[in-house]
Amino acid sequence: MKLYDSVRAPNPRRVRIFLKEKGIEIPTVTVDLGAFEHRDAAFSKVNPLQRTPALELDDGTVITESVAICRYFEEIRPEPALFGRTAIEKARVEMWNRRAELELFVPIAHVFRHGHPGMAKHEVPQVAEWAEANRPKMMAGLALLDEQLGGSQFLAGDAYSIADITALCAIDFMKPTKTRVPDEMVHLLRWHHEVSARPSALP
Amino acid sequence: MKLYDSVRAPNPRRVRIFLKEKGIEIPTVTVDLGAFEHRDAAFSKVNPLQRTPALELDDGTVITESVAICRYFEEIRPEPALFGRTAIEKARVEMWNRRAELELFVPIAHVFRHGHPGMAKHEVPQVAEWAEANRPKMMAGLALLDEQLGGSQFLAGDAYSIADITALCAIDFMKPTKTRVPDEMVHLLRWHHEVSARPSALP
């Protein structure tokens, strides 16, 4: 088994944190996105979509998409459960993982990819107006999470889950957009402090 | 248990097809998106994000996000399995469901929401340039699925899954973008013909 990983990018980080929470160590190959190694012939054979992370199993099967990779590990090593245990918990984790993605991660990614000069060769065409349109969506996503965390220790309830991992990686990815979580979002800041202090979140 | 549903919109349709495949019937409440009923006070209490579908359980818990709702039903009624059975199958279904969403459903939705005059009050601001930027992404998504279906009966392998439901609802949602699956994508057209003929896909 082999994980194709990249530093700094938020999606590979989701899988790294997930694996640390599970206590799983596997061989990794670092793909340098800055040097466009994800577009070279060797990696394109592994993942024709030219994105990291990608998990290559011993039989040659390649699984891409961060959440699909995480789900594979949840199945082969169920503890600690990071996708929920009961039907309602599993649905709640799925719901909050998707909200963290769709309402926060995606707007942040679009602000960055369509607004940052350093991304001009990665995102073609860059649409500056679309970057700007995503700033209020990003703030609304933060507010949604802040409200939820006012009544809940973690995003999907009492237990840390993949939804927290997605939200953490999204928020830390706001840095290049030059935005911070507003001081008045005290619940989100409390939670961010807590999940950032877990050993899994450290570099 | 109660499902808040809407006609014509692709996400509620994903849940309807899923339930039919499972043989599950539950009471539904139709929310008229054209009349902006999803933004009225009553529905906003059910789902503050003002979107359908939403599933209200008997204890008052509300689950939103189509895939989260489907996952809940997969847990309480496992057969027929629509999220895969083994670890690898589950990872493959997750991967292809996400690819169908991210590479196809999302670009189609953006072409429609940002390009169609009828959506001007729903999508604020509409960014015409972003609609256009999504047309090639949409075509690339179709090509990705066509290639996969050249070697596989269904998207994630030999068994029909939620990935097929997502892709079917995405493709049928191309109609308002005035685009069709190109004739040369024979594998995708073969698959579309087959999944459209299942009783679950009928209105």
Summarize the structure.
Two copies of one chain form a homodimer. Helix content of chain A is 51%, strand content 6%.
Pick out its properties:
203 residues; four-stranded mixed beta sheet; Glutaredoxin; Glutathione S-transferase Yfyf (Class Pi), Chain A, domain 2; 2 domains; homodimer
Sheet with most strands of chain A: 4 strands, mixed
CATH topology of the largest domain in chain A: Glutathione S-transferase Yfyf (Class Pi), Chain A, domain 2
CATH architecture call of the largest domain in chain A: Up-down Bundle
Q: Unreliable segments of chain A (pLDDT under 50, ≥5 consecutive)?
A: none
Classify the beta-strand content of chain A into a percent band. Answer: 5-15%
Widest sheet, order of strands of chain A: 2-1-3-4
What CATH first level of the largest domain in chain A would be assigned?
Mainly Alpha
Radius of gyration of chain A: 17 Å
Quaternary state reads homodimer
The helix/strand order of chain A is: EHEHEEHHHHH
Helical percentage of chain A: 40-55%
What report would you give on this structure?
Two copies of one chain form a homodimer. With 203 residues, chain A is of the alpha+beta class. Chain A folds into two domains: 2-76, Glutaredoxin (3-Layer(aba) Sandwich), CATH 3.40.30.10; 87-201, Glutathione S-transferase Yfyf (Class Pi), Chain A, domain 2. Chain A is 51% helix and 6% strand. A four-stranded mixed sheet of chain A has the order 2-1-3-4, with helices on one face. Chain A is globular, with a radius of gyration of 17 Å. The two termini of chain A are 22 Å apart. The mean pLDDT of chain A is 96. At the A-B interface, helix 3, helix 4 and helix 5 of A face helix 3, helix 4 and helix 5 of B.
